[in-house]
Amino acid sequence: MHLTAASTLLFLSTALQASASLLPAWYFDKATSTTNLAAAPTCNGHAELCSKSYADVVYIGAHNSYAVGDGVSDNQAVNITTTLKGGIRLIQGQAHENYGVFRSNESNPSELSLCHTSCLLQDGGSLEDYLRSVRAWLNENPREVLTILMTNPDRVDIRRWEAGFNSTGFNASNTWWPDNKRADGSYGPSPSRDQWPTLGEMIDQDKRVVIFLDYASDRDQVSWILAEFDSIYENPFDQLDLPFNCSVDRGRTEGTLALLNNNKNTQPLGSTVAISTPDRNATSTTNSADGENGIVSTVQRCASETRTRATFVLVDYWDTPAKNGVAEAAARLNNVSRPGSAKDMIPSSASRSIFQHPSALLVPHLAAAFALGLALL
């Protein structure tokens, strides 16, 4: 039998179509959906969060995130890099003058130490050393949005804070802030709750960091360091009993974000001085995703009382408990699956073996058809 070249091409085309028909229709749907799912960008670990407003995501925060150890003024068990790797997306710190320890130079121009109440009790090192670790982590994780909240009890001038942040890679270009400059050069009010961008927008613009300072901020001097209590309100921060008090302690509630101080303190029995220290024994209860005094229930109860769900939840010793702790609580509150849950544990190799591209299955059929065509020439 002799076939012309045109006849051979027609034969091969028919054979290829017949081979494709051997595959069920669902196969092509699966292959397409799997490809799209794999390509979906994530924001703070989840594609579902990219379209959510910054204000509507719940962030677990590490209270005094630099204060690591077992001392009376310590609040965490692991360093800032481990904290960020563990999923914490609000990091809080407190800075003080530390006269005679730091001199203004290239490595620590702010001359500030991260200290809890007093640098004699807890000296966590310079502001700049801490921020360098944070900047390094951000550079390695370009799809993450982070909030930095600093307290400034000494009312240190905002320009010194600016110097510390600038020297470690934080500036007006890579932080998010409302660009609402007036004609006279001053800046307008902080954004209301419904004016915050989505996480996806912040990431796409490479403005993935929001910086708040509780006292002595001045946007007319440093536009990108925001005044905490213009944007956030808090419940009482020194709480000795459970359940936690949800009432408003600082800041205004209208149009702002809520920060829930979810850390319990204790006072030594018989003490004549009201000195509070972190109640580490309570963290297995207060940091749990479960229970009436756990994070999920407390956030829901406070939302019912104040009519605003917390955007930030500040905790001590965030890594306790190890199971059903803060990561699980955040996942439930944000309605996403926790990393490492059954939903996220399908091996990528399994996906490849089950949902190969259709062309991979067509190759044997195409080869056979081509060989048959050559034999007929």
TrEMBL record:
Listed GO biological process terms:
lipid metabolic process
> Which parts form a coiled-coil structure per UniProt?
none
Query: Does Signal count among this protein's keywords?
Result: yes
Q: Which Pfam families match?
A: PI-PLC_X
Signal peptide coordinates: 1-20
Annotated Gene Ontology MF terms? phosphoric diester hydrolase activity
Would the keyword Cytoplasm be found if you checked this record's keyword annotation? no
Q: What InterPro entries does its record include?
A: PI-PLC_domain, PLC-like_Pdiesterase_TIM-brl
What are the protein's UniProt keywords? Answer: Signal
* Recorded superkingdom: Eukaryota
PANTHER family attached to this UniProt entry = PLC-LIKE PHOSPHODIESTERASE, PTHR13593
- Record-given protein name: PLC-like phosphodiesterase
